[in-house]
Amino acid sequence: MNNLRVVFMGTPDFAVPVLEKLIEETNVVLVVTQPDAYVGRKKVLTKSPVRILAEEHNIEVFTPDKLRNEYEYVLNFKPDIIITCAFGQIVPKQILDYPEHGCINVHASLLPKYRGASPISAAIREGEEKTGITIMYMDEGIDTGNIIQAKEIPILEDDTLGTLSAKLSVLGAETLIKTLPRIIECENFDIPQDHESATYYKILKREDERIDFNKSRLEVYNFIRSLNPSPMSNTIIAGSEWKIIESTIGSEKKCDIGVITSVNKDSFGIGCLDGEILITKVKLAGKKEMFVRDLFNGYDKSKLLGVKVGE
């Protein structure tokens, strides 16, 4: 496959292992990624992880604001195949129709479940026991194309968005490279999705990060780990926003929902629909992440007991 002319489209860390494999096995002639973005409190202009890798290998990088308006630049590279992974923009029909071997997407769910921009977070949040990678043909819909290959892995009880993303990114790269020869030889599966059983999750907004304690302990626990390490779930405690990073499921004792019901050496409990969730790691505004046991070394924890959170 060394002569296969590949255009790769991707942006975040998740897409890096896929690009690495393609650089090893094919001829990547162009990388398309999102424009540099301002990151962090200091608003530092930062290149995407995919751009950084491409430049390390002296591969030309294209960063269009809107690909649909600049698609001809991509076609000038005469790709045999286009491969996308967490790119972040809609790929226009002019590009989809061009490559001999099609446009292929590496998607982080077992389609048709969890189409859209946040499939890994959604699978954890919904309490799924497994998820996986789907290699699929792209069409004009959002993750609606025919399935070429799918591989599944279990979601462990302590998996977070970070740990599960790392596993799936490696699985995606390995599955794509194993499947690619069959795609080139037209010997691959080409299975239509069951659209009636599809679910779709859009990109998360700021308001989607607030914890709802009117849910079960397990639902709250899953929600917290589905946003760890970024953007992190949050609640309001004593008038300030606290990022909630890690938790454990507490007792089934009857609690006032959304009230801090216990303060312990290394955690504090908040009432949920069916008991108590124990918060063990937090980030306060302007502070570093810390375990609750360290926070309590310099914090009057007695002030927390009985506080209503989220308001």
Tell me briefly what this model is.
A hairpin with a 4-residue loop joins strand 3 and strand 4.
Architecture overview:
It is a single chain. The protein has 311 residues and is of the alpha/beta class. The chain has 2 domains: 5-201, Rossmann fold (3-Layer(aba) Sandwich), CATH 3.40.50; 207-303, Formyl transferase, C-terminal domain (Methionyl-tRNA Fmet Formyltransferase, Chain A, domain 2). Helices cover 23% and strands 28% of the residues. It contains 8 helices and 17 strands. The chain has helices spanning 16-25, 49-56, 71-75, 93-96, 119-125, 161-184, 217-226, 292-295; strands at 5-10, 27-32, 37-39, 44-46, 61-62, 81-85, 103-107, 115-116, 130-137, 147-154, 200-201, 233-237, 240-249, 260-263, 268-272, 275-284, 289-291. The strands form 4 sheets. It has a 7-stranded mixed beta sheet with strand order 5-2-1-6-7-9-10. Strands 12, 13, 14, 15, 16 and 17 form a 6-stranded antiparallel beta sheet that branches. The protein has a two-stranded antiparallel ribbon with strand order 3-4. A hairpin with a 2-residue loop joins β15 and β16. The radius of gyration is 22 Å and the shape is elongated. The relative contact order is 0.10.
